[in-house]
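Recall the central idea of this unit: under ordinary conditions, the amino acid sequence of a chain determines the structure it adopts. In this exercise we apply that idea directly, starting from the sequence alone.
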Amino acid sequence: MSFPTMLYRCPGPHSCAGGTFGYIGAEDQVEFDKCIADGWHPTLPEAMSPPADVRIVEPDDGAPPTRAELESKAAELGLKFDGRTSDAKLGRMIAEAI
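Accordingly, the structure predicted from this sequence is:
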């Protein structure tokens, strides 16, 4: 790894792919290791993905998915969207990707 480098953590003040994140820099391996121990991640996708020990339960109430649920699934699938993307279009994009 080359230094300085960036590390990422969610949530944070910056928006990306339906989520938010923060970032900091590490000047050397010691600082990098301390940041990792404090919950920072070496890549943004790692920071935005849920921890392996968290079980995500899909609602089974028959209601249409909320915007937050659509954005979460779209981000999980790596789909590109923004605030101008309608819920209906986002739903179609997810269905096509699955």
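The mean pLDDT is 85.
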